[in-house]
Design brief:
The structure holds 2 protein chains of 2 kinds.
Chain A (H helix, E strand, L loop, with lengths): L2 H5 L3 E2 L4 E2 L1 H20 L36 H6 L1 H10 L4 H21 L1
Antiparallel strand pairs in A: 1-2
Chain B lengths: L2 H28 L3 H26 L5 E5 L11 E5 L1 H24 L6 H20 L3 H19 L6 H32 L4 H7 L4 H18 L7 H8 L2 H25 L8 H24 L4 H25 L4 H40 L15 H14 L6 H16 L1 H26 L15 H19 L1 H17 L1 H6 L10
Antiparallel strand pairs in B: 1-2
Classes of the chains: A mainly alpha, B mainly alpha.
Protein backbone atom coordinates (compact mmCIF):
# COMPACT_ATOMS: atom_id res chain seq x y z
CA UNK A 1 0.00 0.00 0.00
CA UNK A 2 1.44 3.37 -1.00
CA UNK A 3 1.92 6.20 1.50
CA UNK A 4 -0.95 8.16 -0.10
CA UNK A 5 -3.30 5.19 0.13
CA UNK A 6 -2.35 4.76 3.78
CA UNK A 7 -3.10 8.42 4.46
CA UNK A 8 -6.45 8.33 2.69
CA UNK A 9 -7.56 5.10 4.36
CA UNK A 10 -11.10 5.22 5.74
CA UNK A 11 -11.22 5.18 9.51
CA UNK A 12 -13.08 2.05 10.69
CA UNK A 13 -14.74 2.56 14.05
CA UNK A 14 -15.84 -1.03 14.60
CA UNK A 15 -19.50 -0.43 13.82
CA UNK A 16 -19.16 2.41 11.31
CA UNK A 17 -16.63 4.44 9.36
CA UNK A 18 -15.40 8.00 8.98
CA UNK A 19 -13.43 9.59 6.20
CA UNK A 20 -12.43 13.19 6.96
CA UNK A 21 -11.11 13.81 3.43
CA UNK A 22 -14.51 12.96 1.88
CA UNK A 23 -16.16 15.14 4.56
CA UNK A 24 -13.92 18.09 3.65
CA UNK A 25 -14.64 17.69 -0.07
CA UNK A 26 -18.41 17.64 0.66
CA UNK A 27 -18.08 20.66 3.00
CA UNK A 28 -16.15 22.63 0.34
CA UNK A 29 -18.79 21.74 -2.28
CA UNK A 30 -21.55 22.87 0.11
CA UNK A 31 -19.78 26.21 0.63
CA UNK A 32 -19.39 26.66 -3.12
CA UNK A 33 -23.10 25.98 -3.73
CA UNK A 34 -24.00 28.41 -0.91
CA UNK A 35 -21.73 31.05 -2.45
CA UNK A 36 -23.31 30.60 -5.87
CA UNK A 37 -26.82 30.84 -4.37
CA UNK A 38 -25.75 33.98 -2.51
CA UNK A 39 -24.95 35.53 -5.88
CA UNK A 40 -28.66 35.34 -6.78
CA UNK A 41 -29.55 37.45 -3.70
CA UNK A 42 -30.85 41.03 -3.47
CA UNK A 43 -28.19 43.47 -4.68
CA UNK A 44 -29.89 46.62 -3.30
CA UNK A 45 -27.78 46.66 -0.12
CA UNK A 46 -26.17 50.05 0.43
CA UNK A 47 -23.31 50.44 2.87
CA UNK A 48 -23.40 53.42 5.27
CA UNK A 49 -27.18 54.02 4.99
CA UNK A 50 -30.12 53.32 7.34
CA UNK A 51 -30.06 49.73 6.08
CA UNK A 52 -27.05 48.83 8.23
CA UNK A 53 -28.42 50.28 11.52
CA UNK A 54 -29.67 47.92 14.22
CA UNK A 55 -33.42 48.06 14.95
CA UNK A 56 -34.02 47.66 18.70
CA UNK A 57 -37.84 47.95 18.78
CA UNK A 58 -37.56 51.66 18.14
CA UNK A 59 -35.24 52.26 21.12
CA UNK A 60 -32.04 54.25 20.60
CA UNK A 61 -28.93 52.22 19.88
CA UNK A 62 -26.24 52.27 22.61
CA UNK A 63 -22.60 52.90 21.85
CA UNK A 64 -20.97 49.83 20.32
CA UNK A 65 -18.68 49.32 23.37
CA UNK A 66 -21.69 49.06 25.69
CA UNK A 67 -23.53 46.54 23.50
CA UNK A 68 -21.19 43.60 24.20
CA UNK A 69 -22.95 40.82 26.10
CA UNK A 70 -20.66 39.80 28.96
CA UNK A 71 -19.67 36.20 29.63
CA UNK A 72 -21.59 36.00 32.93
CA UNK A 73 -24.83 36.94 31.13
CA UNK A 74 -24.54 34.23 28.49
CA UNK A 75 -26.69 31.08 28.95
CA UNK A 76 -28.49 32.94 31.76
CA UNK A 77 -31.75 31.02 31.21
CA UNK A 78 -29.97 27.67 31.35
CA UNK A 79 -27.97 28.41 34.49
CA UNK A 80 -30.96 30.08 36.22
CA UNK A 81 -33.26 27.11 35.59
CA UNK A 82 -30.62 24.68 36.88
CA UNK A 83 -29.57 26.98 39.73
CA UNK A 84 -30.11 24.30 42.36
CA UNK A 85 -27.54 22.04 40.68
CA UNK A 86 -25.01 24.83 40.29
CA UNK A 87 -25.55 25.84 43.94
CA UNK A 88 -24.66 22.30 45.04
CA UNK A 89 -21.58 22.29 42.79
CA UNK A 90 -20.52 25.69 44.14
CA UNK A 91 -20.81 24.42 47.70
CA UNK A 92 -18.64 21.42 46.81
CA UNK A 93 -15.86 23.65 45.47
CA UNK A 94 -14.94 25.53 48.63
CA UNK A 95 -11.32 26.18 47.67
CA UNK A 96 -10.37 24.90 51.13
CA UNK A 97 -7.52 22.37 51.11
CA UNK A 98 -9.01 20.52 54.10
CA UNK A 99 -12.10 19.77 52.02
CA UNK A 100 -9.94 18.48 49.18
CA UNK A 101 -8.38 16.00 51.59
CA UNK A 102 -11.81 15.12 52.97
CA UNK A 103 -12.92 14.05 49.48
CA UNK A 104 -9.74 11.99 49.19
CA UNK A 105 -10.59 10.21 52.47
CA UNK A 106 -14.23 9.67 51.39
CA UNK A 107 -13.19 8.10 48.06
CA UNK A 108 -10.64 5.93 49.85
CA UNK A 109 -13.28 4.74 52.34
CA UNK A 110 -15.74 3.92 49.53
CA UNK A 111 -13.06 1.97 47.63
CA UNK A 112 -12.04 0.08 50.79
CA UNK A 113 -15.68 -0.93 51.23
CA UNK A 114 -16.04 -1.97 47.58
CA UNK A 115 -12.81 -3.98 47.48
CA UNK A 116 -13.53 -5.49 50.90
CA UNK A 117 -17.03 -6.56 49.95
CA UNK A 118 -16.18 -8.03 46.54
CA UNK B 1 26.75 -0.83 15.99
CA UNK B 2 25.79 2.45 14.33
CA UNK B 3 24.75 5.59 16.19
CA UNK B 4 21.01 4.92 15.73
CA UNK B 5 21.29 1.43 17.25
CA UNK B 6 23.37 2.84 20.09
CA UNK B 7 20.80 5.56 20.77
CA UNK B 8 17.98 3.04 20.56
CA UNK B 9 19.69 0.65 22.97
CA UNK B 10 20.27 3.34 25.58
CA UNK B 11 17.16 5.38 24.79
CA UNK B 12 15.18 4.57 28.00
CA UNK B 13 18.05 5.96 30.08
CA UNK B 14 18.83 8.86 27.73
CA UNK B 15 15.22 10.09 27.68
CA UNK B 16 15.46 10.74 31.43
CA UNK B 17 19.17 11.57 31.62
CA UNK B 18 19.28 14.26 28.90
CA UNK B 19 16.65 16.61 30.42
CA UNK B 20 18.04 15.87 33.90
CA UNK B 21 21.56 16.82 32.85
CA UNK B 22 20.12 19.77 30.92
CA UNK B 23 18.35 20.94 34.09
CA UNK B 24 21.63 21.15 36.00
CA UNK B 25 23.47 22.80 33.11
CA UNK B 26 20.79 25.45 32.47
CA UNK B 27 21.87 27.83 35.30
CA UNK B 28 25.44 27.65 33.98
CA UNK B 29 24.41 28.38 30.38
CA UNK B 30 22.30 31.25 31.73
CA UNK B 31 25.54 32.92 32.75
CA UNK B 32 26.41 33.34 29.04
CA UNK B 33 23.17 35.04 28.09
CA UNK B 34 19.41 34.46 27.99
CA UNK B 35 19.30 33.66 24.28
CA UNK B 36 21.92 30.91 24.65
CA UNK B 37 19.97 29.44 27.55
CA UNK B 38 16.69 29.43 25.61
CA UNK B 39 18.34 27.78 22.59
CA UNK B 40 20.04 25.25 24.87
CA UNK B 41 16.75 24.25 26.55
CA UNK B 42 14.97 23.93 23.19
CA UNK B 43 17.86 21.80 21.85
CA UNK B 44 17.79 19.57 24.93
CA UNK B 45 14.06 18.94 24.57
CA UNK B 46 14.34 18.64 20.78
CA UNK B 47 16.99 15.94 21.21
CA UNK B 48 14.89 14.18 23.87
CA UNK B 49 11.83 14.29 21.60
CA UNK B 50 13.86 12.75 18.75
CA UNK B 51 15.01 9.90 20.99
CA UNK B 52 11.43 9.40 22.29
CA UNK B 53 10.18 9.14 18.68
CA UNK B 54 13.02 6.74 17.80
CA UNK B 55 12.20 4.50 20.76
CA UNK B 56 8.45 4.73 20.13
CA UNK B 57 8.93 3.77 16.49
CA UNK B 58 10.64 0.57 17.60
CA UNK B 59 8.29 -0.18 20.52
CA UNK B 60 5.15 0.27 18.39
CA UNK B 61 6.27 -2.64 16.20
CA UNK B 62 5.79 -4.95 19.20
CA UNK B 63 9.18 -4.84 20.96
CA UNK B 64 9.36 -4.18 24.68
CA UNK B 65 12.57 -2.45 25.76
CA UNK B 66 14.15 -3.14 29.12
CA UNK B 67 17.09 -1.21 30.50
CA UNK B 68 18.80 -2.31 33.68
CA UNK B 69 20.79 -0.02 35.95
CA UNK B 70 22.80 -2.61 37.93
CA UNK B 71 23.03 -6.38 37.59
CA UNK B 72 20.89 -8.00 34.89
CA UNK B 73 20.68 -11.26 36.84
CA UNK B 74 17.45 -10.95 38.80
CA UNK B 75 18.47 -13.82 41.12
CA UNK B 76 21.35 -11.79 42.55
CA UNK B 77 20.45 -9.76 45.66
CA UNK B 78 21.78 -6.53 44.18
CA UNK B 79 19.96 -3.24 44.19
CA UNK B 80 18.98 -2.49 40.63
CA UNK B 81 16.56 -0.25 38.80
CA UNK B 82 14.85 -1.55 35.74
CA UNK B 83 13.22 0.60 33.08
CA UNK B 84 10.64 -1.22 30.99
CA UNK B 85 9.14 0.45 27.96
CA UNK B 86 6.07 -0.99 26.27
CA UNK B 87 3.78 0.73 23.77
CA UNK B 88 1.75 2.41 26.53
CA UNK B 89 4.90 3.92 28.07
CA UNK B 90 6.06 5.07 24.63
CA UNK B 91 2.62 6.56 23.91
CA UNK B 92 2.71 8.59 27.13
CA UNK B 93 6.31 9.65 26.45
CA UNK B 94 5.34 11.06 23.05
CA UNK B 95 2.70 13.28 24.68
CA UNK B 96 5.17 14.52 27.28
CA UNK B 97 7.94 15.14 24.75
CA UNK B 98 5.82 17.13 22.29
CA UNK B 99 4.14 19.31 24.89
CA UNK B 100 7.35 20.00 26.86
CA UNK B 101 9.10 21.08 23.64
CA UNK B 102 6.17 23.32 22.69
CA UNK B 103 6.14 24.77 26.22
CA UNK B 104 9.76 25.95 26.05
CA UNK B 105 9.30 27.44 22.57
CA UNK B 106 6.23 29.32 23.87
CA UNK B 107 8.10 30.44 27.01
CA UNK B 108 10.78 32.22 24.98
CA UNK B 109 8.56 35.27 24.51
CA UNK B 110 5.88 34.56 27.12
CA UNK B 111 8.28 34.53 30.07
CA UNK B 112 10.74 37.06 28.63
CA UNK B 113 9.86 39.86 31.05
CA UNK B 114 10.20 37.65 34.12
CA UNK B 115 13.24 37.30 36.33
CA UNK B 116 14.64 33.98 37.62
CA UNK B 117 14.28 32.28 34.26
CA UNK B 118 17.32 30.05 34.84
CA UNK B 119 15.35 28.48 37.70
CA UNK B 120 12.20 28.39 35.56
CA UNK B 121 13.84 26.40 32.76
CA UNK B 122 15.69 24.18 35.25
CA UNK B 123 12.37 23.31 36.87
CA UNK B 124 10.67 22.70 33.49
CA UNK B 125 13.44 20.26 32.55
CA UNK B 126 13.31 18.56 35.97
CA UNK B 127 9.55 18.21 35.69
CA UNK B 128 9.87 16.73 32.21
CA UNK B 129 12.60 14.29 33.36
CA UNK B 130 10.38 13.22 36.28
CA UNK B 131 7.41 12.72 33.97
CA UNK B 132 9.44 10.57 31.56
CA UNK B 133 10.79 8.58 34.49
CA UNK B 134 7.26 7.89 35.74
CA UNK B 135 6.12 6.41 32.45
CA UNK B 136 9.33 4.55 31.59
CA UNK B 137 10.27 2.93 34.87
CA UNK B 138 9.46 -0.69 35.65
CA UNK B 139 10.10 -0.25 39.37
CA UNK B 140 7.53 0.83 41.95
CA UNK B 141 9.92 2.71 44.25
CA UNK B 142 11.49 4.42 41.27
CA UNK B 143 7.99 5.44 40.17
CA UNK B 144 7.51 7.06 43.57
CA UNK B 145 10.84 8.90 43.29
CA UNK B 146 10.00 10.27 39.82
CA UNK B 147 6.51 11.22 41.04
CA UNK B 148 8.15 13.25 43.80
CA UNK B 149 10.57 14.94 41.38
CA UNK B 150 7.63 15.86 39.12
CA UNK B 151 5.52 17.10 42.04
CA UNK B 152 8.20 19.28 43.62
CA UNK B 153 9.16 20.85 40.28
CA UNK B 154 5.47 21.34 39.41
CA UNK B 155 4.74 23.02 42.75
CA UNK B 156 7.59 25.50 42.31
CA UNK B 157 6.43 26.25 38.75
CA UNK B 158 2.77 26.73 39.73
CA UNK B 159 3.88 29.26 42.34
CA UNK B 160 6.45 30.80 39.95
CA UNK B 161 4.68 34.17 39.91
CA UNK B 162 5.37 34.68 43.60
CA UNK B 163 4.19 38.29 43.43
CA UNK B 164 0.65 36.94 42.98
CA UNK B 165 -0.84 35.59 46.20
CA UNK B 166 -3.18 33.21 44.41
CA UNK B 167 -0.33 31.51 42.54
CA UNK B 168 1.45 30.85 45.82
CA UNK B 169 -1.81 29.55 47.32
CA UNK B 170 -2.30 27.22 44.31
CA UNK B 171 1.30 25.99 44.68
CA UNK B 172 0.72 25.34 48.38
CA UNK B 173 -2.48 23.38 47.65
CA UNK B 174 -0.68 21.37 45.00
CA UNK B 175 2.21 20.40 47.27
CA UNK B 176 -0.19 19.36 50.07
CA UNK B 177 -2.17 17.18 47.65
CA UNK B 178 1.02 15.77 46.11
CA UNK B 179 2.66 15.02 49.45
CA UNK B 180 -0.40 13.19 50.76
CA UNK B 181 -0.71 11.19 47.52
CA UNK B 182 3.00 10.34 47.56
CA UNK B 183 2.83 9.31 51.22
CA UNK B 184 0.04 6.82 50.53
CA UNK B 185 1.85 5.51 47.44
CA UNK B 186 5.00 4.98 49.52
CA UNK B 187 2.96 3.19 52.18
CA UNK B 188 1.40 0.92 49.54
CA UNK B 189 4.85 0.16 48.08
CA UNK B 190 6.10 -0.70 51.59
CA UNK B 191 3.17 -3.12 52.02
CA UNK B 192 4.09 -4.86 48.77
CA UNK B 193 7.84 -4.87 49.49
CA UNK B 194 7.23 -6.24 52.98
CA UNK B 195 5.37 -9.23 51.58
CA UNK B 196 7.22 -10.04 48.37
CA UNK B 197 10.70 -8.56 48.93
CA UNK B 198 10.52 -6.98 45.46
CA UNK B 199 9.95 -3.57 43.95
CA UNK B 200 9.99 -4.42 40.27
CA UNK B 201 6.49 -4.14 38.76
CA UNK B 202 6.75 -7.34 36.70
CA UNK B 203 8.22 -9.34 39.62
CA UNK B 204 5.49 -8.05 41.93
CA UNK B 205 2.77 -8.78 39.36
CA UNK B 206 4.08 -12.34 39.09
CA UNK B 207 4.21 -12.85 42.87
CA UNK B 208 1.17 -10.96 44.06
CA UNK B 209 -1.48 -13.07 45.83
CA UNK B 210 -4.25 -10.49 46.29
CA UNK B 211 -4.02 -10.92 50.04
CA UNK B 212 -5.66 -8.57 52.56
CA UNK B 213 -2.55 -6.34 52.54
CA UNK B 214 -2.50 -6.37 48.71
CA UNK B 215 -6.09 -5.13 48.69
CA UNK B 216 -5.11 -2.26 51.01
CA UNK B 217 -2.14 -1.44 48.77
CA UNK B 218 -4.40 -1.51 45.68
CA UNK B 219 -6.86 0.99 47.17
CA UNK B 220 -4.08 3.29 48.38
CA UNK B 221 -2.35 3.27 44.99
CA UNK B 222 -5.53 3.85 42.99
CA UNK B 223 -6.83 6.66 45.21
CA UNK B 224 -3.47 8.43 45.38
CA UNK B 225 -2.82 8.28 41.62
CA UNK B 226 -6.47 9.16 40.88
CA UNK B 227 -6.21 12.31 42.99
CA UNK B 228 -3.09 13.34 41.11
CA UNK B 229 -4.90 12.56 37.85
CA UNK B 230 -7.76 14.92 38.82
CA UNK B 231 -10.59 12.41 38.89
CA UNK B 232 -13.88 13.65 40.37
CA UNK B 233 -14.44 14.27 43.29
CA UNK B 234 -10.70 14.65 43.93
CA UNK B 235 -10.24 17.12 41.08
CA UNK B 236 -10.56 20.34 43.04
CA UNK B 237 -6.84 21.14 43.17
CA UNK B 238 -6.70 20.99 39.37
CA UNK B 239 -8.53 24.24 38.44
CA UNK B 240 -6.54 26.09 41.13
CA UNK B 241 -3.19 24.82 39.85
CA UNK B 242 -3.94 24.98 36.11
CA UNK B 243 -5.38 28.48 36.25
CA UNK B 244 -2.68 30.10 38.39
CA UNK B 245 0.42 28.61 36.74
CA UNK B 246 2.00 30.37 33.72
CA UNK B 247 0.39 29.01 30.51
CA UNK B 248 3.56 27.26 29.36
CA UNK B 249 3.75 25.47 32.71
CA UNK B 250 0.10 24.46 32.54
CA UNK B 251 0.56 22.41 29.38
CA UNK B 252 3.42 20.46 30.97
CA UNK B 253 1.20 20.06 34.06
CA UNK B 254 -1.45 18.48 31.80
CA UNK B 255 1.17 15.84 30.86
CA UNK B 256 2.14 15.35 34.51
CA UNK B 257 -1.53 14.75 35.33
CA UNK B 258 -1.72 12.21 32.54
CA UNK B 259 1.41 10.49 33.87
CA UNK B 260 -0.56 9.89 37.08
CA UNK B 261 -3.42 8.53 34.98
CA UNK B 262 -0.82 6.17 33.51
CA UNK B 263 -0.04 5.16 37.12
CA UNK B 264 -3.70 4.17 37.64
CA UNK B 265 -3.65 2.06 34.45
CA UNK B 266 -0.30 0.43 35.28
CA UNK B 267 -1.49 -0.54 38.76
CA UNK B 268 -4.93 -1.82 37.67
CA UNK B 269 -3.91 -3.62 34.49
CA UNK B 270 -0.30 -4.73 34.95
CA UNK B 271 0.40 -4.94 38.68
CA UNK B 272 -2.94 -6.41 39.73
CA UNK B 273 -4.21 -7.57 36.33
CA UNK B 274 -3.47 -11.24 36.83
CA UNK B 275 -4.55 -11.73 40.42
CA UNK B 276 -7.35 -9.30 41.00
CA UNK B 277 -10.34 -11.50 41.76
CA UNK B 278 -12.85 -8.76 41.13
CA UNK B 279 -14.86 -9.12 37.95
CA UNK B 280 -13.44 -6.83 35.21
CA UNK B 281 -17.06 -5.96 34.39
CA UNK B 282 -17.60 -4.63 37.94
CA UNK B 283 -14.42 -2.55 37.77
CA UNK B 284 -15.40 -1.43 34.27
CA UNK B 285 -18.79 -0.19 35.41
CA UNK B 286 -17.23 1.65 38.37
CA UNK B 287 -14.82 3.38 35.96
CA UNK B 288 -17.68 4.15 33.53
CA UNK B 289 -19.69 5.69 36.38
CA UNK B 290 -16.67 7.75 37.48
CA UNK B 291 -16.19 8.85 33.87
CA UNK B 292 -19.81 9.96 33.50
CA UNK B 293 -19.73 11.92 36.79
CA UNK B 294 -16.37 13.47 35.86
CA UNK B 295 -17.67 14.55 32.44
CA UNK B 296 -20.91 16.07 33.69
CA UNK B 297 -19.42 17.80 36.71
CA UNK B 298 -16.47 19.16 34.74
CA UNK B 299 -18.57 20.57 31.94
CA UNK B 300 -21.22 21.99 34.30
CA UNK B 301 -18.58 23.81 36.34
CA UNK B 302 -16.88 25.04 33.15
CA UNK B 303 -20.15 26.56 31.94
CA UNK B 304 -20.44 28.93 34.92
CA UNK B 305 -16.80 30.09 34.99
CA UNK B 306 -15.94 33.61 33.93
CA UNK B 307 -12.18 33.21 34.27
CA UNK B 308 -10.74 31.90 30.99
CA UNK B 309 -8.11 29.61 32.51
CA UNK B 310 -10.40 28.17 35.21
CA UNK B 311 -12.95 27.48 32.49
CA UNK B 312 -10.40 25.50 30.47
CA UNK B 313 -9.25 23.69 33.63
CA UNK B 314 -12.78 22.45 34.33
CA UNK B 315 -13.09 21.42 30.67
CA UNK B 316 -9.88 19.42 31.18
CA UNK B 317 -11.62 17.64 34.06
CA UNK B 318 -14.55 16.83 31.73
CA UNK B 319 -12.14 15.48 29.12
CA UNK B 320 -10.66 13.04 31.68
CA UNK B 321 -14.21 11.68 31.99
CA UNK B 322 -14.22 10.76 28.27
CA UNK B 323 -11.00 8.76 28.69
CA UNK B 324 -12.45 6.91 31.66
CA UNK B 325 -15.69 6.23 29.81
CA UNK B 326 -13.84 4.65 26.87
CA UNK B 327 -11.47 2.54 28.96
CA UNK B 328 -14.19 1.57 31.45
CA UNK B 329 -16.52 0.51 28.63
CA UNK B 330 -13.74 -1.71 27.27
CA UNK B 331 -13.21 -3.32 30.67
CA UNK B 332 -16.91 -4.20 31.06
CA UNK B 333 -16.64 -6.66 28.14
CA UNK B 334 -13.05 -7.81 28.74
CA UNK B 335 -14.09 -11.40 29.52
CA UNK B 336 -16.25 -11.78 26.41
CA UNK B 337 -13.93 -12.21 23.39
CA UNK B 338 -16.65 -11.50 20.82
CA UNK B 339 -17.90 -8.35 22.53
CA UNK B 340 -14.35 -7.28 23.29
CA UNK B 341 -13.56 -7.28 19.56
CA UNK B 342 -16.80 -5.51 18.62
CA UNK B 343 -17.16 -3.00 21.47
CA UNK B 344 -14.28 -3.26 23.92
CA UNK B 345 -11.30 -2.58 21.68
CA UNK B 346 -12.90 0.37 19.80
CA UNK B 347 -13.98 1.84 23.16
CA UNK B 348 -10.51 1.46 24.63
CA UNK B 349 -8.92 2.82 21.44
CA UNK B 350 -11.21 5.83 21.76
CA UNK B 351 -10.26 6.28 25.43
CA UNK B 352 -6.52 5.98 24.79
CA UNK B 353 -6.68 8.13 21.61
CA UNK B 354 -8.49 10.74 23.68
CA UNK B 355 -5.55 10.92 26.12
CA UNK B 356 -3.28 12.40 23.43
CA UNK B 357 -6.13 14.43 21.92
CA UNK B 358 -7.00 15.93 25.28
CA UNK B 359 -3.38 16.89 25.92
CA UNK B 360 -3.20 18.63 22.53
CA UNK B 361 -6.62 20.32 22.59
CA UNK B 362 -6.52 21.50 26.18
CA UNK B 363 -2.85 22.39 25.73
CA UNK B 364 -3.64 24.61 22.72
CA UNK B 365 -6.50 26.32 24.57
CA UNK B 366 -4.24 27.06 27.55
CA UNK B 367 -1.65 28.55 25.20
CA UNK B 368 -4.37 30.74 23.67
CA UNK B 369 -5.42 31.82 27.18
CA UNK B 370 -1.77 32.61 27.89
CA UNK B 371 -1.54 34.63 24.66
CA UNK B 372 -4.58 36.68 25.67
CA UNK B 373 -3.10 37.26 29.11
CA UNK B 374 0.21 38.27 27.51
CA UNK B 375 -1.51 40.78 25.23
CA UNK B 376 -4.14 42.18 27.62
CA UNK B 377 -2.99 41.21 31.17
CA UNK B 378 -6.55 39.98 31.67
CA UNK B 379 -8.14 36.55 32.06
CA UNK B 380 -11.67 37.57 33.12
CA UNK B 381 -14.04 36.87 30.24
CA UNK B 382 -16.38 39.59 31.56
CA UNK B 383 -13.74 42.22 30.83
CA UNK B 384 -12.52 40.92 27.46
CA UNK B 385 -14.07 41.46 24.02
CA UNK B 386 -13.43 42.13 20.35
CA UNK B 387 -9.91 40.66 20.36
CA UNK B 388 -10.35 38.94 16.98
CA UNK B 389 -9.74 42.36 15.39
CA UNK B 390 -6.25 42.63 16.86
CA UNK B 391 -5.23 38.98 17.36
CA UNK B 392 -6.19 37.22 14.13
CA UNK B 393 -3.81 34.26 14.38
CA UNK B 394 -4.63 33.64 18.03
CA UNK B 395 -8.34 33.67 17.13
CA UNK B 396 -7.77 31.05 14.42
CA UNK B 397 -5.84 28.86 16.89
CA UNK B 398 -8.63 29.27 19.44
CA UNK B 399 -11.26 28.20 16.88
CA UNK B 400 -9.16 25.11 16.04
CA UNK B 401 -8.95 24.32 19.76
CA UNK B 402 -12.69 24.95 20.18
CA UNK B 403 -13.57 22.57 17.35
CA UNK B 404 -11.12 19.94 18.59
CA UNK B 405 -12.18 19.93 22.22
CA UNK B 406 -15.88 19.86 21.34
CA UNK B 407 -15.41 16.96 18.94
CA UNK B 408 -16.37 18.84 15.76
CA UNK B 409 -15.18 17.22 12.50
CA UNK B 410 -12.63 17.14 11.02
CA UNK B 411 -10.54 17.73 14.17
CA UNK B 412 -8.84 15.03 16.24
CA UNK B 413 -11.38 15.16 19.10
CA UNK B 414 -14.11 13.99 16.72
CA UNK B 415 -12.28 10.78 15.80
CA UNK B 416 -11.69 9.66 19.40
CA UNK B 417 -15.14 10.73 20.55
CA UNK B 418 -16.78 8.93 17.60
CA UNK B 419 -15.12 5.70 18.74
CA UNK B 420 -16.37 6.29 22.29
CA UNK B 421 -19.94 7.24 21.20
CA UNK B 422 -20.39 4.24 18.89
CA UNK B 423 -18.97 1.64 21.23
CA UNK B 424 -20.71 2.90 24.37
CA UNK B 425 -23.99 3.13 22.42
CA UNK B 426 -23.84 -0.63 21.87
CA UNK B 427 -23.11 -1.16 25.55
CA UNK B 428 -25.84 1.17 26.79
CA UNK B 429 -27.31 4.02 24.71
CA UNK B 430 -27.64 6.26 27.79
CA UNK B 431 -23.83 6.36 28.13
CA UNK B 432 -23.51 7.55 24.57
CA UNK B 433 -26.26 10.15 25.04
CA UNK B 434 -24.56 11.55 28.16
CA UNK B 435 -21.21 11.67 26.33
CA UNK B 436 -22.74 13.53 23.35
CA UNK B 437 -24.57 15.90 25.72
CA UNK B 438 -21.27 16.64 27.46
CA UNK B 439 -19.62 17.39 24.10
CA UNK B 440 -22.48 19.74 23.18
CA UNK B 441 -22.06 21.50 26.52
CA UNK B 442 -18.31 21.77 25.91
CA UNK B 443 -19.13 23.42 22.58
CA UNK B 444 -21.44 25.84 24.41
CA UNK B 445 -18.70 26.58 26.95
CA UNK B 446 -16.16 27.52 24.29
CA UNK B 447 -18.66 29.35 22.07
CA UNK B 448 -19.20 31.51 25.17
CA UNK B 449 -15.45 32.20 25.23
CA UNK B 450 -15.39 32.91 21.49
CA UNK B 451 -18.20 35.42 21.89
CA UNK B 452 -16.91 37.02 25.10
CA UNK B 453 -13.23 37.33 24.29
CA UNK B 454 -12.92 37.43 20.53
CA UNK B 455 -16.18 38.70 19.04
CA UNK B 456 -18.29 41.76 19.75
CA UNK B 457 -17.36 45.42 19.50
CA UNK B 458 -13.84 46.59 20.07
CA UNK B 459 -13.33 47.44 23.77
CA UNK B 460 -11.56 50.85 24.12
CA UNK B 461 -9.15 49.43 26.72
CA UNK B 462 -7.90 46.83 24.22
CA UNK B 463 -7.77 48.98 21.07
CA UNK B 464 -3.97 49.05 21.11
CA UNK B 465 -3.59 45.31 21.73
CA UNK B 466 -1.20 43.61 19.30
CA UNK B 467 -0.76 40.02 18.14
CA UNK B 468 1.60 37.95 20.35
CA UNK B 469 5.29 37.39 19.37
CA UNK B 470 6.32 34.78 16.83
CA UNK B 471 7.64 32.15 19.27
CA UNK B 472 4.20 31.97 20.90
CA UNK B 473 2.49 31.74 17.50
CA UNK B 474 4.91 29.00 16.41
CA UNK B 475 4.20 27.00 19.59
CA UNK B 476 0.44 27.30 19.08
CA UNK B 477 0.90 26.53 15.37
CA UNK B 478 2.78 23.28 16.12
CA UNK B 479 -0.06 21.98 18.33
CA UNK B 480 -2.75 23.20 15.91
CA UNK B 481 -0.98 21.41 13.02
CA UNK B 482 -0.81 18.14 14.98
CA UNK B 483 -4.51 18.49 15.88
CA UNK B 484 -5.43 18.90 12.20
CA UNK B 485 -3.08 16.08 11.15
CA UNK B 486 -4.59 13.69 13.72
CA UNK B 487 -8.07 14.77 12.65
CA UNK B 488 -7.43 14.24 8.93
CA UNK B 489 -5.66 10.88 9.24
CA UNK B 490 -7.19 9.18 12.28
CA UNK B 491 -6.81 5.65 10.85
CA UNK B 492 -3.06 6.18 10.54
CA UNK B 493 -2.75 7.34 14.14
CA UNK B 494 -5.03 4.59 15.48
CA UNK B 495 -3.14 1.83 13.62
CA UNK B 496 0.38 3.02 14.40
CA UNK B 497 0.19 4.67 17.80
CA UNK B 498 -3.10 4.00 19.59
CA UNK B 499 -3.70 0.30 18.92
CA UNK B 500 -0.23 -0.78 20.13
CA UNK B 501 -0.85 1.21 23.33
CA UNK B 502 -4.28 -0.41 23.80
CA UNK B 503 -2.79 -3.86 23.18
CA UNK B 504 -0.07 -3.12 25.75
CA UNK B 505 -2.77 -2.13 28.23
CA UNK B 506 -4.83 -5.28 27.70
CA UNK B 507 -2.02 -7.79 27.08
CA UNK B 508 -0.25 -7.07 30.35
CA UNK B 509 1.23 -10.61 30.30
CA UNK B 510 3.79 -9.54 27.69
CA UNK B 511 5.06 -6.79 30.01
CA UNK B 512 5.54 -9.28 32.85
CA UNK B 513 7.04 -12.00 30.60
CA UNK B 514 9.74 -9.57 29.43
CA UNK B 515 11.23 -9.76 32.96
CA UNK B 516 9.80 -13.10 34.17
CA UNK B 517 9.88 -15.38 31.10
CA UNK B 518 8.19 -18.19 33.06
CA UNK B 519 5.06 -16.11 33.70
CA UNK B 520 2.07 -17.94 32.24
CA UNK B 521 -0.87 -15.66 33.10
CA UNK B 522 -2.21 -12.63 31.29
CA UNK B 523 -4.36 -12.13 28.24
Amino acid sequence: MSMLETLLETFQTGSGFWNPIVWIIVAVLAFLITYILRGFGNKKYKKGTEQVKSFLSGNPEYEKEKMHVKSSNLFWGFTESLKWIFDILHKMHTGNISDYILWFVIVMAVLFLLVGLM
Amino acid sequence: MNIIDFLLMHSPALIVAIPLLGAFLTPLISRINNKARNIFVILILGLTTSIVLLLANDVFTGNIHTYVFGSKDLALPIIRILFEVDALSAFMSIIGAILALVAVIYSWAFMQENTGLDKFYTLILLMTAGMFGMVLTGDMFNLFVFLEITSIASCALIAFWTNKGKSVEAGFKYIVISTISALFILFAIALLYGQYNALNIATLANAIQFSFLDKIALVLLIVAFAMKAGIVPMHMWLPDAYSKAPASVTIVLVCATQASLYGVFRVCFTLYGNTINLSPASIGWIIVLLGIITMLLGVAMALIQSDFKRLIAFSAVAEIGFMFLGIGAGLTVLENAEMMAAIGLPAMSGGVFHIINDALDIGLLFLVAGAIYYATRETSLDKLGGLARNMKYTTVFFIIGLFAVSGIPPMNGFASKLLIYESTFQLNPILSIVAILSSIMLLAVFVKVLHSAFLGPSIPKFKEVKEVPKSMLIAMGIIASIIILFGLFPELIINHIVEPAVNALVSYGDYIREVIPTFTGGI
